[in-house]
Amino acid sequence: MSIFIAMCFFSLSMSISPGPVNMTILSSGVNYGFRRSLPYVTGATLGFVLLLIAVGLGLSNLVASVPLFYEILKYAGTAYMIYIGYKIMISKPKLEVKEDRRPRYYQGILMQWLNPKAWIACLSGVAAFGLNDSRSMLFAFVAIYFLICYLSLAAWAVLGAQLKFLAKVKNGIRYFNLTMGASLIAVAVYLLLSELESR
Fold first, then answer.
1. SS (H, E, C) the chain
2. Which of 7 and 130 is assigned the larger pLDDT?
3. Are 126 and 140 in contact (CB under 8 A)?
4. What is the pTM of this model?
C-alpha cells in the first residue's frame, strides 16, 4: 500500500507544480473560462499518460540509444513553448473571444510530448518505482497519474477562471497575457540554457 501512496504524492508534486502546461492552462482559464479550457486539460492529461506508458514499455531504452533524439526534443520543445508563449502574449484582451484561438485538445497532447518537464517526470517515475519490470504496476501508476494529473491541471483552469476579475481592471487581461506569455518563453529558454550548461 505504501508504494501507491508514494505514487500519489509523486504524481501530485509533478502535476500541480508550475510548468509550461500549467501556465498555458492558467492563461486559458483567464481568457476563455473553465469549460472552454477543458479540452486542452484533457489533451494534456492524455498526452502525458501516453508518454508515461510509452516510457514504461521501453521507449526510454530506445531513445537512450539515440542521443540525437534528446537534442531534437530539446530544441523542438523550446521552439514550441516559445510559439505558445507568443500566442498567449498576442491574445486579444476581450471577453468575446474567438473559439479558434483557445488552446485545443491536440495542442495539449503535443505540448506534453515536447515538454522536458513531462519527460523528466516519466523517466524518473518509471525508474523510481521500477516499472520497467512490472506491467501491472506500470498501469496502476498510469491510472493514479491520470486521475491526479487531470484534477491538478483542471485546478489551474479553475484558478484562471477565478482571475476573470482582471477583465474589469483597465488592460488587466492584456497585461496578464503579456506576463504569462513572457513567463512561458522565459521558462523555455531557461530549460534550454540549463540543459546546455549541464553538459
1. CHHHHHHHHHHHHHHHCCCHHHHHHHHHHHHHHHHHHHHHHHHHHHHHHHHHHHHHHHHHHHHHCCHHHHHHHHHHHHHHHHHHHHHHHCCCCCCCCCHHHCCCHHHHHHHHHCCHHHHHHHHHHHHHCCHHHCHHHHHHHHHHHHHHHHHHHHHHHHHHHHHHHHHHCCCHHHHHHHHHHHHHHHHHHHHHHHHHHCC
2. 7
3. no
4. 0.80
- Intra-chain end-to-end CA distance of the chain, in Å: 39
Residues 72-121 have pLDDT tens digits of 777 887 888 888 888 888 876 554 445 556 778 888 998 899 887 788 88
